Amino acid sequence: MQIRYVVLAVLFFSVAQCVAWMQMNAPILWSSFNRYKWLLMLLGIPVTWMFMSATRYAVTGFDGNLWPGRILSFVTGIITFTALTWFLKGEAVTIKTTICLVLAFAILLIQVFWK
């Protein structure tokens, strides 16, 4: 495993997940974003590039394996969704959500550290 590439993958996945969250949820949460739907849709181009780059970094970091990158994408998605939904929408993190986050983090640790 090449940790530098894994860290880059996590960063790219996290940023892409944050932008994707805004694309999907901003028009629902703030009506002013309904005027900018085309701009939000055009953000799909750089988001796609970020996901592709993150996947490439993950595959490189995990010695050519695809599954670890998919798991990284899933876990970063769960974590960023939870953080943004709590921070921007104010939805409380329930015990059920907390358990899901702990499990997602455990999945990440297994994928990174299990040889």
Question: How does this model look, in words?
Answer:
This protein is mostly helical and 115 residues long. Helix content is 81%, strand content 0%. It contains five helices and no strands. The chain is flat and about 50 Å long. The mean pLDDT is 93.
Oligomerization status of the protein chains: single chain
Q: Helix count?
A: 5
Round the Cα radius of gyration to an integer and report it.
15 Å
Order of helices and strands: HHHHH
- DSSP helix fraction: over 70%
Largest sheet: none
* DSSP strand count: 0
Low-pLDDT ranges: none
Overall spatial form: flat
State the end-to-end CA separation: 9 Å
Give a short synopsis of this structure.
The chain is mainly α. Helix content is 81%, strand content 0%.
Properties at a glance:
single chain, 115 residues, mainly alpha
Write the layout of secondary structure elements.
Blueprint: H1 3-29, H2 37-42, H3 44-61, H4 67-89, H5 95-113
Helix pairs in contact: 1-3, 1-4, 3-4, 4-5
